[in-house]
Amino acid sequence: MKALLSFVLLDFIVIGIPIITVIIIVKKAGKEVYKSKNKNETTMQQNINIKPKTLKEIYPNTNFTTVNNQQYVEKYNYKPAYEKRELITEYEKKLYIILENIIKEKYYSNITIQAKIRLADLIETTTYNKTYFYKICSKHVDFVLCEKQNLKPLLIIELDDNSHDYENRRIRDDFVNQSLVQSGYKVLHIRNLDKTKIEQTVTEILTNKLPAVFYV
Question: Which residue, of 7, 12, 114, 157, is most buried by count of CB atoms within 10 Å of its CB?
């Protein structure tokens, strides 16, 4: 009898206790998962009910009124890291006005002018090699004539000043020309702001009478 009891006790120790232990662990884990789920649901509901804070509440010590750099210097005794700049130069403004007049006078009511367009917004790479993207992501073109209704680019315009005579600029221009033409665009390089010549050239390019890259 004692032998039988010893055998039963041994079985309980060897088999029963591990089973009970596993059951306890599983139940405890289940409770933790349930608590975590309830906590997450409660947090999500609290986030939904949170009223968005205003900028003034988030940054109580910041003045959001517009000030110029001189006022900033006078108030804080140092110049900010950034300042507002013009989108295009005075020379580029002259060309912009010429292009605007051409559009009005030639009744191109379906055309609009976009300035400072990034090359990577006009073309995209056909490979996963990021080197090709890095070549276009930091370059831009001066103006793009687009269809007004859908902003489809019709003609890329570059205003070439004397800096384009340097070798590094010529290399850059050749790369931009090649990339755009291979992608199906036409490119006009303008150096002299001769309205009559520009008007004639723009018209001929838009009517497909001139090659893909043309210089005025």
Answer: 157
* Strand segments (E) across 22-67: none
User: Is residue 71 packed enough to be buried (19+ CB in 10 Å), middle (13-18) or exposed (0-12)?
Assistant: exposed
Alpha carbon of 63 to those of 56, 66, 68, 80, 83: distances in Å? 8, 8, 13, 14, 17
pLDDT in tens, 95-104: 999 999 998 8
Which residue type, as a one-letter code, is found at position 109? Answer: S
Angle between helices 90-105 and 195-206 (to 10 degrees): 60
Nearest 5°: the CA angle 65, 68, 69 is 125
Positions in the chain whose pLDDT score sits under 70: 1-56, 62-80
Q: What angle do CA 170, 122, 200 make, to 5 degrees?
A: 65
- Among residues 83, 106, 124, the one where a domain terminates is 83
Question: With contact defined as beta carbons under 8 Å apart, do 190 and 160 qualify?
Answer: yes
Residue 190's beta-bridge partner residues?
Answer: 159
* Residues 6+ away with beta carbon under 8 Å from 112: 145, 146, 147, 148, 151
Phi, psi of 14 (to 5 degrees): -75, -40
| CA-wise closest residue to 179 among 116, 114, 121, 123 | 123
Residues 123 and 172 in one domain: yes
